[in-house]
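To illustrate the input format used throughout this study, we show a single complete record. The first block contains the structure-token representation of the backbone; no residue identities are included at this stage. The design step must infer an amino acid for every position from geometry alone.
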């Protein structure tokens, strides 16, 4: 399973330009959301709590389900980004 930083690096490689993932602290994320006039203040803590729960959860198990169903292995992220390149421009 790829980290967010690894995912962003791969997208950058396919796009041919360097990209990086910059992690925010909870307080930085809270402030950005509160500063966004289009984002409801009442949902800020709910969203941040949800993100914290996802980070604390066990990582998903990698399975062979795609290959079992389709008869071929799943695409890796590099292949998927290449196939959807127009979506990133």
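Output of the design step:
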């Amino acid at each position: 399973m790829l980290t967010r930083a690894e995912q962003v690096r791969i997208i950058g490689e396919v796009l041919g330009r360097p990209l990086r993932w910059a992690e925010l602290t909870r307080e930085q994320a809270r402030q950005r959301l509160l500063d966004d006039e289009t984002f409801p203040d009442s949902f800020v803590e709910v969203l941040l709590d949800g993100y914290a729960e996802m980070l604390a959860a066990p990582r998903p198990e990698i399975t062979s389900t795609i290959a079992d169903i389709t008869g071929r292995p799943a695409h890796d992220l590099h292949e998927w980004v290449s196939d959807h390149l127009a979506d990133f421009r």
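Structural context for interpreting the output: The two ends are 25 Å apart (CA to CA). The helical segments are 4-15, 26-35, 44-56, 65-70, 77-83.
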